[in-house]
Amino acid sequence: MPIDLHAHADYARTGLFPWLARTMKLTVYTDYTLRVLMYLSLRHESGALTTIEEIAAAYDISRNHLMKIVHQMGAAGLLETVRGRSGGVRLARDPAAISIGMVVRLAEGDFSLVECFEAGKENCCTISPACNLTRGLRRALDAFMFELDRMTLRDAVAAPSVAASLLGIDDSQRRIIPLVPASASRTSRSAG
Prior knowledge:
Elements: H1 9-14, H2 18-21, H3 28-43, H4 52-59, H5 63-75, E1 79-82, E2 88-91, H6 100-108, H7 133-150, H8 153-156, H9 160-166, H10 182-191
Antiparallel strand pairs: 1-2
Helix pairs in contact: 3-5, 3-6, 4-5, 6-7
């Protein structure tokens, strides 16, 4: 008798079917990438720069791991990096404009679940011409990515003030960046 995985989804969390919980796993690199972006989303409204050291300390992650992530996400246009003594990093876009699916695709790079998914690699599976498993796995991957595409970086942090507190982000460090430069607001007041 086949097992209905939908009916037993809670078993994966409780450990009754441990293999259910291990069916899909993102890399540590993707996990850290999501953490970096979530941290920066909490600082986005302030416009404040954050150092890699601050993020590394908040998550207890090696600074070296985060340097590669910041470089890749900066090159992809998701982060703005500022060099120098008072430099740092911040989101280049609003967190609501960054989909988790896009971030996962950038970080993972390769979603070859099985050998026959790999482009340019000779498939050595004997039943490949008669196999429908690839199609099913492709649909499952597409459904997984569809759900991640629907979630934004803003959605990923359910309780921003709680997350900021847990990460040690001090709200007093937040500053408001005016939308109109100070010189323009003075000019409009003197003209009126």
